[in-house]
Amino acid sequence: MTTVDEPAGRRLTERGAKTRTRIITAATDLMYTRGVGATTLDDVVAASGVSKSQLYHHFAGKDALVRAVIDHSGKRVIDREREALRRVSSIAGLRRWRDALVRNNAVQHGAYGCALGSLASEVADRDDVARQTLSGLFAEWEGLLADVLGRLQDAGTLPDDAPIDELTTGLMGALQGGYLMAQTAHDVTPMATSIDMALNYIESLSAE
Known about the structure:
By secondary structure, this protein is mostly helical. It has helices spanning 14-33, 41-48, 52-58, 62-85, 91-106, 115-123, 128-154, 164-185, 189-206, and strands at 2-5, 10-13.
């Protein structure tokens, strides 16, 4: 059985694909908790249990591995958010979505921040390919939020002239800013407050 290694255009054996996945998973966990800059390829080799030659067989260097980590983290986040938001069609549903995010972040007292936001802060200014991928992932996430606000508009909860794009950007900004503030404070209260402010404004439009 073979699978396609898309970044390199090669075909991998099932064993090779599992090795590649193990490397990416280990690198993802390390880069999330330590940061991209503080994670070395030797760290990834040790954590994944592969040899350095195996790592270089799959990745030309650290930049290539970081890009694979972005793809992997992005899929995790977008899949999670798609599942969480696909049936949300009310302000109450958005507040439950907010509660779940804050509760999940509280498990580690706000440490490490958003998986995508943390990656963006480290790589966006030095790797344009990575920046574009992250930009696309954030746009996809915003699209899921825009779909929710569109459903609120269709249901009459939001007025027809509600600026959906602007509201979506504001909500995403509150979320990402909240993640960052919670990370620096090691306290999720700022995250909860910032998202609440955005949701309160959205809800205020329904009363006008």
